[in-house]
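Re: your question from the hallway

Yes, I did run it. Sequences:
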Amino acid sequence: MRYQTEWTEAEVVSTELVSSSVRQLEFMPVTGTEIFTPGSHLSFEVMINNLPETRSYSLVGLYEKNKPYRVSVKQLAESRGGSNYMWQLKPGAKIKISRPANNFELQFKHADYLLVAGGIGITPMVGMAQVLASKKVNVTMVYVGNSESDMPYINELTALLGDKLTVHTLEKDKTFFNFKKLISELTPGTQMYLCGPLGMMDEVRHQWEAHKLPATDLRFETFGASGKFAPQAFKISIPRLKLELKVEKNQSMLDVLNKAGADIIYDCVKGECGLCMVDILSCSGEVDHRDFFLSDEQKKENKKMCTCVSRVANGDIVIDTAFRGTEKTVENIAAKTNN
Amino acid sequence: MNAWYAVAWEVDIKKELFPRTICNKNIVLYRRTDGLVVALEDACWHRLLPLSKGRIEGDEVVCGYHGLIYNSDGRCTYMPSQETINPSACVRTYPVEEKHRFVWVWMGEPSLADTKLIPDLHWNKDPLWAGDGRTIKANCNYRLIVDNLMDLTHETFVHAGSIGDQHVAEAPFDVTQDGKTATVTRWMTNIDPPPFWKSQLHKKVKYEGKVDRWQIINFQPPATVTIDVGVAPTGTGAPEGNRSSGVNGFVLNTMTPSTDKTCYYFWAFCRNYALQDQNTTFETREGVAGIFRQDEEILEAQQIAIDQNPDREFYNLNIDAGAMWSRRLTDRMVEKEINKHVTV
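Structure:
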């Protein structure tokens, strides 16, 4: 269920570095905190180039009376500005936040749970692990990352889960985690909750399908911030609109198109709904599909892309939009943009 | 509210969509092929059409508008005209249990749903007791029914001729509470039995004469009332604890708020005598249903009067102690929950 965002004023209570690249921030709204379920997130009004934008971060841990909300933010080299803004917040700073909302709800009636987190995808999993550990259910967790120094909450999770926690790092283990083996050995009926970078999520989803496990036993949350390639700048041309645009590496294609007046309809802005899709006419590089809307086959066909999250690597792209208006309107758009 | 609420009799929930408004929230229930009951939020994730306007296909629910399909975990398994499914797409599910012949739903924080907290109505499914009941869709706030049940003095005036007589209005009573439940105990010793109890006693023993009659009303918050009632021939030791010569019934009542001004009222009358006699089951159920129709009329009129006099409060009498303790126990439960949820 989707709820309208209600903003309230909140104050930063504390900030703390919880790994080499992750900062934990605590917030107390002026109206007090509200109960939330594990998997919930908060939206924040962040200022980017002095303009307000919205970013969502998972709540870490469980609701506790009189305790502030906790979120953790990874500093990303390719940040579009959200993580930088969050990182510069100091105790006492004021920020607008939403009420907690949950798109990644944990269901309790099952016997076996597997939580899989990659990198900063750990944030919604901490509360899930805490609540499941307190129940009479079997919960195991796999936490994958580059190096332990970079991965927050390992100590807390070890204390909570003991040998039910597997920490796998590229640095120590030298290999990627073997999801094929993990999934082939699952107890039937196991509920998997997954959050991590796109490549890892794709691998898990492919293994899940290959083992013919019920799609509804796998829940995942996306944050649309990762792809096959590191973000690069690229050019878009839209012949119908006579537009030539440049997308910088810290900008989204959707924002650039809309700022230029190309008028793209959109909704979720995280690669789920498919509304911001455009037609690909040609591409001199590779389309880095980062969405969850198009199927693998559709992504291979390369006829459409979701502009909110997907990008182009090593080349440029020619697209078409939904616009079918008059020549005069086209000239107006082009004139405005080129000025 | 973090509590189990009865939403239907077990037999009411079949392989069809069964919508109910519980605590101002719309839910839809159905029974899966394996017999398990499911409760989903009754609004499609997509454009909020009540799912109860759709249909069941296998164990899944198909929305009646654009055909989105949800499984019994509330997860979307089909979206029209696209090859994938939005990972956020789901509707809320509510914990459900079947117990004491009722279907119970937990409307609050799901991780706190503990089946041990289901109100004790075991008489409704116990080989030593027989009986049956009904559901009333009452046009009044559920608390008015609790008030009604916690003070049976009204029997004399509302139910004269069946269970009510002057003794009930005149006999002294005790009100006790243990922090969790409230109890009103009333003994009427050495009296002529009212017509209903006279005929019930005859099903067990041919006895003409004075009886000792009891009414022990117990309240479990937020809205369950069990009434231990019966008569025994005077002098056989019932007030001292030996009820073996008498007949005993339990009136089981559990109320579920629907809106602020309506509720579902589930009741049953169970007895520990004439266990094999279907006629007694039929007669007592119909008899109680008739008695409760008299209450319904009073309570609806009371709700209308409350609505027409928004600036007025109730006066309380000595007889209202049980009702007042019930309200206080429920208020404390609510207060505890609110304090837990919102903190500054």
